[in-house]
Amino acid sequence: MRLFCYADDTLVVASGGSFGEVAQLAMAGTRLVVGRIQALGLRVSLDKTEALLFHGPRMGPPSGAALVVEGVRISVASSMKYLGLVLDGRWNFEPHFKSLEGRLVRAAGALGKLLPNLGGPCQSVRRLYCGIIRSMALYGAPIWDDALIRRTNRMLIRRPQRVIAVRAARCYRTVSFEAACVLAGTPPWEWEVELIAALYRAKAETKSRASAMNHLKATHNDTWHALRL
């Protein structure tokens, strides 16, 4: 079992060989966490607690699966929102992209009303608006970059980019996705996702090597001091 805490979000992760084993561990761990939080004088709203099972093909939770913590029944759902990302049991992020597409299209449509083809803001302002939608779209990219292998996910993320790119480039609605991106000066987001994910992993690897080196130096210094004694 592992525990992840970020701000006011607490995530309990349990692993096991079967759903029954995982459920027992998750319930025990959640009871412990709730007890520690209550000991601090705080209250946990178990009615808002969500449960999700990560599983492989044909290994989903049994029908009506649920966890029971302090008398509260927590149903095991097919997806769960955590820190702005919609996670699903198969880790393919399709629910995330479906939810994201609607929000991005609405935001792009709202900004598009401020960007008429004739007149309106200058090109720098239009690029700024494109950047706003891009930041919303690429949030958490190093987590879900592999999910863009699925064509349906790529199409879900391309639609809002085309909407804002057409407005930024002052194009007609019939202009293709590729042409609109070129004219607006914004490469396809799936390309940017690959770059962001590669940079993230490179930085994480560098940080890990530096941490290991510092640990080695500390161990060496401790040994040297011991020898001097």
TrEMBL record:
InterPro entries: RT_dom (IPR000477). This is Reverse transcriptase domain-containing protein. Residues 1-87 form the Reverse transcriptase domain. It comes from the Eukaryota. The lineage of its organism: Eukaryota, Metazoa, Ecdysozoa, Arthropoda, Hexapoda.
